[in-house]
Design brief:
The complex is a heterodimer of chains A (190) and B (346).
Chain A: H1 11-20, H2 24-46, H3 49-68, H4 77-93, H5 124-131, H6 136-147, H7 152-159, H8 163-188
Helix pairs in contact in A: 1-2, 2-3, 2-4, 3-4, 4-7, 6-8, 7-8
Chain B: H1 3-18, H2 23-29, H3 34-46, H4 54-74, H5 78-84, H6 88-112, H7 118-131, H8 136-143, H9 153-159, H10 173-176, H11 201-207, H12 217-233, E1 243-246, H13 253-259, H14 264-271, E2 284-287, H15 324-327, H16 332-345
Antiparallel strand pairs in B: 1-2
Classes of the chains: A mainly alpha (190), B mainly alpha (346).
């Protein structure tokens, strides 16, 4: 009898199960599924495209090495990847990273009318420059919660903080970014 | 303004919007904070506009794809796998030890001829499982003082043990090869989700180890998980003049193949059932025509079913009849397939 009924599982846990049993195609599939998210996260944190690419490739090599050693993530694959990415960023920049601020010149590309709704007036580069003025924690919260749309709990796990801290941090991050945008808009249109 | 409340409400709105609700939906829930919330949520959403553009992304992917694919290919995954598998010689040894134990018990039984209680049978069985990895001398020692039983019951009790004592190695193909393995080992190329990376032969043999007994639930579960996954990664599309059939309790792939006049091979290919994977009750399969016995449970057509699978170039009728015709059984045939292949591979 080969007919069995099992509750649905998420694609991740099935992938993980296969990868943990040394299925190379599953490992490749994990890479395909997450490479862009991880790169986006790292790229916006470190600013430099080449460094972001290197860190992203290190994250997946670590995953592959860990699978080959019979280690690697056991439950949350996505959380594990972001957590490793975060650690690699800190490895590259030290505990208190002094992230390369994109030059203030880029803010000159900020055009538009401050009366218009916030955001429609900012170019991508100008926005990145503003985001990178936030603290590392605030940047991570912003990227994980708004860009990657991870849950509060996932974000808390990745950042090794409790959920209440994350709640507070995410509000502060957005308030601070709003202030920066308003200041920039004010400076340009003075 | 209550900062604590704003923190909670803001978080709630972020969650709701991540789940697809609109900004206005959330503002309606917290009308007293609407102005502040709108501004904050807009800034939050705005941060998404900092994302990397697709040109940069595709350039990076072009390089990373190659790096990582090469890295996966160069990595030896068998290091970790070997820790979970016992070399074939060890399996033979433990089986031999188990056989000797059975004979030892039988000898003792003849000498003493005492009647058996069910509890002593369990104890003896436990002794069997712990003893199989010991040297032969130890086995006979541990077996001989155990309470004896009637000769008719004992062999039955111990006969089921050989797979179980070596249960530290439940994934060895050779162990379960004797029990009716239900899947054909043939793996079709169209099943591989990523053509650049071929799955290792060891995994294929691992997934073969499903036994019908309840002892192998772990194997069965992982195999089923793979079945579900394979259905996701390979797109099953319905060929012309085929129909849909919902898997019933008691069905097997070979049985369905027999009833629909095709082969398990073709069913696997069309339905993206990778070799070694299971079918699940309620799962919808594409079959050549209405089944003779079961009433087909016709379900809604999948959105992607208009595309003909490239792998199907032959009609089911043009192929040889299913193997199940010869022996009539609907799981034995695949068991035979498996045995043949395991012999070939060994």
């Amino acid at each position: 009898m080969i007919v069995l009924v099992l509750p649905d599982e998420t694609g991740d846990s099935q992938l993980l199960e296969r990868a943990r049993r040394d299925d190379k195609s599953a490992v490749a599939q994990i890479y395909q599924e997450y490479v862009e998210s991880i790169y986006q996260f790292v790229r916006l944190r470190v600013g430099d495209a080449q460094i972001a690419e290197d860190i992203t490739s290190t994250v997946f090599m670590t995953l592959i090495d860990d699978f080959a050693k019979g280690k690697g993530p056991r439950s949350s694959l996505r959380g594990w990847l972001f957590q490793v990415a975060r650690h690699k960023i800190y490895d590259t920049y030290g505990q208190q990273p002094t992230l390369p601020l994109e030059t203030i010149d880029q803010l000159e590309s900020f055009t538009g009318n401050p009366e218009v709704e916030l955001g429609q007036t900012l170019t991508r580069d100008a926005l990145r420059a503003l985001i990178q003025q936030l603290s590392p924690d605030q940047q991570e919260i912003l990227l994980l919660r708004f860009d990657q749309q991870l849950s509060l709990q996932e974000t808390a796990d990745i950042m090794n903080k409790n959920v209440n801290t994350v709640k507070t941090l995410q509000l502060r991050a957005v308030q601070r970014l709003r202030k920066l945008i308003q200041q920039t808009a004010g400076a340009i249109y003075e | 303004m209550n900062e604590q409340r704003l923190t909670e409400v803001f978080n709630d709105c972020v969650d709701r919007m991540a789940m697809g609700q609109s900004l206005e939906d959330c503002l309606a829930l917290y009308s007293d904070l609407a102005d502040e919330l709108r501004s904050l949520l807009q800034v939050g959403q705005l941060s998404r506009q900092a994302r990397v553009d697709t040109i940069e992304l595709s350039q990076v992917r072009f390089r990373l794809d190659k790096t990582i694919t090469d890295y996966i290919a160069a990595t030896d995954f068998n290091d970790s796998a070997s820790r979970w598998r016992v070399p074939p010689g060890a399996t033979v040894l433990s089986l031999a030890a188990a056989m000797m134990l059975v004979f030892g018990i039988l000898l003792v039984l003849r000498d003493n001829s005492v009647t058996l209680t069910s509890s002593t049978a369990t104890q003896t069985a436990t002794a069997t499982s712990s003893a199989t990895n010991m040297p032969t001398e130890t086995i006979t020692q541990s077996a001989s003082p155990s309470p004896t039983s009637s000769a008719t019951n004992m062999p039955a009790a111990t006969a089921t043990m050989p797979p179980s004592p070596t249960s530290s190695t439940t994934n060895i193909p050779t162990e379960t090869a004797t029990s009716s393995a239900t899947n054909t080992p043939t793996e079709t190329a169209t099943m591989t989700s990523s053509p650049t990376v071929t799955s290792s032969a060891t995994r294929v043999s691992q997934t073969m180890t499903h036994t019908p007994s309840s002892e192998s639930t772990v194997d069965a579960q992982t195999a089923t998980a793979e079945a579900i996954l394979s259905a996701q990664t390979c797109e099953a599309t319905m060929p012309e003049d085929w129909t849909e059939y919902r898997v019933q309790t008691g069905d097997t792939l070979s049985f369905i193949a027999l009833q629909s006049g095709t082969t398990t091979e073709i069913l696997r290919t069309v339905n993206c059932i990778e070799s070694g994977h299971l079918i699940i009750v309620g799962q919808t399969l594409f079959v050549p025509r209405l089944l003779a016995i079961s009433t087909p449970d016709v379900v809604g057509t999948d959105s992607d079913s208009t595309v003909m699978p490239t792998s199907i170039n032959q009609t089911p009728d043009a192929t040889e009849p299913p193997e199940a015709v010869d022996n009539g059984g609907h799981s034995d045939d695949e068991g035979e397939d498996y045995d043949e292949d395991s012999e070939n591979s060994s």
